Amino acid sequence: MADNSSDNFKEFHSYMGMLQNLDVGLVVLDREYRIQLWNNFMESHSGLHPYEVREKNLFETFPEINEEWFRHKAECVFQLNTRAFTTWEQRPYLFKFKNYRPITGSAEFMYQNITIIPLDSSVGVVERIGIIVYDVTDVAVNRIELKAVNDELKRLSRTDRLTGLYNRGYWQECAEREFKRAQRSGSPISLLMFDIDHFKRVNDEFGHPAGDAAIKNTADQLVMNMRETDIAGRYGGEEYTMLLVDTSAENAKVFADRLREHIASSTVHYQDASFQYTVSMGIAELNDDIKNVDEWIDAADHALYESKEGGRNTVSIFKKS
Amino acid sequence: MTQTPKVSITEDQRDCYQEISNVAMGQAADLLARLLDVKVILPIPVVNLIEVNELRMALSGIENSETVSGVCQGFIGNGISGEALLIFNDTSFNDISDLLKYGGAADKSLELELLMDVANILIGACLRGIGEQLDVGFSQGHPVVLGQHVNLNDLVAANNYRWTKTLAIEINYKIEGYNINCDLLLLFAEDAIEVLNRKVNYLLED
After folding, report:
1. CA of A92 to nearest chain B CA: how many angstroms apart?
2. How many of the other CB atoms lie within 10 Å of CB of B187?
3. Number of independent structural domains in chain A
4. B101/A90 Cβ within 8 A
5. What does the DSSP 8-state code read for residue B44?
6. Mutate which of B107, B120, B123, B140 to test chain A, going by most A C-beta atoms within 10 A?
């Protein structure tokens, strides 16, 4: 009998030893959010000894905890007698602890996943809850870095290297989307297409790098003048396209003329050479006759051709012939 | 390795799974109603033995074209392992700021809060309900966010699934008076089906 109870005591003691040394945070709270249990992990990372926090209110002891948020989660556990999980994606941490690897770790603090479990529910009433704090810093940092890399890849795959505008492929995707959206909403939208006049001469006279500088200058002028909602792309060599959302052909022409003048008055400096150039532009507002994006581009291209015929450095609007 | 018995379920077993899900789902719906203070429309659970690559089809409650947000959570107990998937139709989130007691407009982080709250309740309660009836205590892993505002196909992209067959229980929850629609999918691994069938057979014998 005596042996048995001493065995039980040993067993209990080793259980406690395991819990104390378990490398996850264990906290028990009573109904008033007073701390009842505080294991070794919590002590080490918070620097607070169990006797310092025992019977203390959680939110007063750790003001960094968003009380409203945590109460909401914890009350679910108290009232519904069910577990609650929170992830670092919701909030990076519950307790603001330093990164476990202060030297080689890149995160400043410890990302945490939290499990809240109902305790003492033998009579059907949850009188205490247990909080389990997991250190998930490595997982979180990897996930965040992976996302950053993927976002960068996505950006690169959409962007034209020289000008920083959208490349043709992605611009065309945008055009398909905006085409469908405009068909649904019925709001006006115009497509502007333009290219550099006598671009071959620029190349022949000043060399291809100077031609590149003109292409870049045109894109810079475009970006400087466009609105945030406009979608601009480099369509081909010295050809540019742009979608003007919620804009009629007449309003698009106001924008286009301003851009055209800006470009005509700008000077490109490349090494010792300086030169000026002009652009010709065509605008097509979407209408019911245009059945798809290709037809829309064709219409704008048609107007652009008209500008070329009409002596260049001008803007034309596509009209049904 | 000489024989790999094909997993299957009989009609009686399917009815039994349906009944078990019904009870569990009702308990879960009750908790959800208490959490959100709303009336939850009780659905009829759909039980199917499917190929994992047919997962997409099992999500019948979710419209094809919409973007979705979802979490998954693994569970295991007595040799029965599986995963719970909770998937929200993103249009649901328009109605969510009304329901949430956090206040403020529904942005991506608030949506995640709701997603997690609902996942905690529904998955926890359903597993408990099923576990009680089958006399199994399930351990739950930590939930993982599958994605927010993504294409459904991307969310359940069938890459590297080791199981070919899965027992899928689909429960489509709707909330009365709100345009809120979420699908809870309990997926049991292929090797769990045999154990489940044995347990269910006990119940059928009574």
Report:
1. 12
2. 23
3. 2
4. no
5. -
6. B120
Contact A90 B113 (CB under 8 A): yes
What pLDDT digit, counting tens, does each position of A1-40 carry? 556 778 888 888 888 888 888 889 999 999 999 999 999 9
Q: Is the pLDDT of residue B110 over 60?
A: yes
Give the Cα separation of B198 and B205 in Å (integer).
11
Tell whether A84 and A183 lie within a shared domain.
no
Residue A231 resides in a domain = yes
Residues on chain A touching B69 (C-beta within 8 angstroms): none
Question: Would an 8 Å CB–CB cutoff place B144 in contact with chain A?
Answer: yes
- Global confidence as pTM: 0.73
Q: Which CATH number is A302's domain given? A: 3.30.70.270
Domain that includes residue A113, residue range: 22-144
> What residue of A is the nearest CA neighbor of B142?
A85
Q: Which of B35, B116, B128 sits opposite A87 (nearest CB)?
A: B116
Does B112 contact chain A (CB < 8 Å)? yes
Are A80 and A140 within one domain? yes
Contact A76 B113 (CB under 8 A): no
User: Does residue B6 belong to the interface with chain A, where contact is any CB pair within 8 Å?
Assistant: no
Name, in order, each residue with C-beta under 8 angstroms of A85's C-beta and a sequence gap of 6 or more.
Answer: A113, A114, A115, A116, B73, B116, B119, B120, B140, B142, B143
Q: Which domains does chain B have, with CATH numbers?
A: 11-205 (3.40.1550.10)
* Domain co-membership, A118 together with A197: no
Question: A130 CA to chain B: closest CA distance, Å?
Answer: 15
Q: Which of B179, B196, B201 is nearest to B76 (CA)?
A: B196
Out of A26-30, A38-42, A135-139, B116-120, pick the least confident. B116-120
Angle (CA) A129 A135 A138, round 5°: 155
| Beta carbons within 8 Å of A267's beta carbon, 6+ residues apart | A274, A275, A276
CB pairs under 8 A between A and B: 49
Same domain, A248 and A116: no
The Cα–Cα gap between A216 and A73 comes to 54
